[in-house]
Amino acid sequence: MKKYNDENYQQVIKELEDTIKTLPFVEKAGVILVEDEIPMAPLHVDDILPEENFSTYEEVSVKGRDSIPESINDVCQHQVRKPAVSYGGDLVIQPGQPATLQEILWNAAKQYGDHGITYVYTDGSEGFQSYKDLLQEAEKVLAGLQKLGLKPGDPVIFQFKDNKKFVTSFWACILGGFLPTPVAVAPIYTEMNAVINKLYNSWKLLSKPLILTELDLEEKLSMLEELWNEPSLRIETFQRLSESPANHDWFEATDESFVLNLLTSGSTGIPKCVQHRNKSIIWRTIATSVKNKFNHEDISLNWMPLDHVGGIVMFHVRDVYLGCNQILGHIDHIIQKPLTWLDWIDRYRATITWAPNFAFSMLNDAIAE
Fold first, then answer.
1. CA-based Rg of the chain, rounded to a whole angstrom?
2. Does the structure show a pLDDT above 50 at 106?
3. Counting CB atoms within 10 angstroms of each CB, which of 53, 108, 286, 350 has the fewest?
4. DSSP per residue over 109-158, as a string?
């Protein structure tokens, strides 16, 4: 930046370097000046326009609540939270930024083809898949899906234990315009349980789509035909689809194209399906990368399941956009031994990682023990 070449700035830098060098334990010193942003604190409307007095009260009825003594008025007043204004600045989109997830994978394969994903399996072994290989392998699964007669816009329910098969199938769907719809793997498939209920309700909600899985789960999933009394269940495996020759004929996606189905938990009934377009995921990905100054030199570590928005969108898709190396582990490792998370951070030299609050509680408990 031009302002940093000013003589006054250079003099300040020199004085800092000279001062640091006078310390007895310092042999050499260098000072680098970088530009950073100071985030703007949230502002309440009352702070900006105090004369308007935006603070109001609303009446809330508490009739019929056993915990309220009779002596208390039937109606209480609660202050409504004041409206707030928070502005983080305009998101600057550089020319040539991708508009679709297809472009994200293409860019990663061409620009950072040697970077990729290290899969940590449940038995402790590892496997690496470069972005170049990911694209090629996804095109094989794409061809297999197209042979089944799937059309752009068709949902595909995912049932995967293996993260590599999940990721490759995910990008195959992205290339073909199909909508990957992840659902967690059930503990057992011979009787109804919370996960099987969600799987069934999601399958019905989406008009009985294809269920894509792996060979190890195929037989278990086939038991659902009898459990659900549904002979029309369509199940296909990653292994069979990946035997097809690669197909480079992709769906012509736009930023408005739907690209991913994410399901609500369904804890209060039938799960709802949230459909995401390319542009919502792209903008979210670019915004967090710019704000946090992430780049292709970062090393990302995620162990949350890929059927979780944090695992698939907040981390995996963002990391492919960055072209950075990413580590994908299994949540079982951390549940069984929480300190494994810290071991992985050290082993892989991770610069980005995350977890919901429960993981930090597990860490505290493990350290206390």
1. 26
2. yes
3. 53
4. HHHSTT-EEEEE-TTS-EEEEEHHHHHHHHHHHHHHHHHTT--TT-EEEE
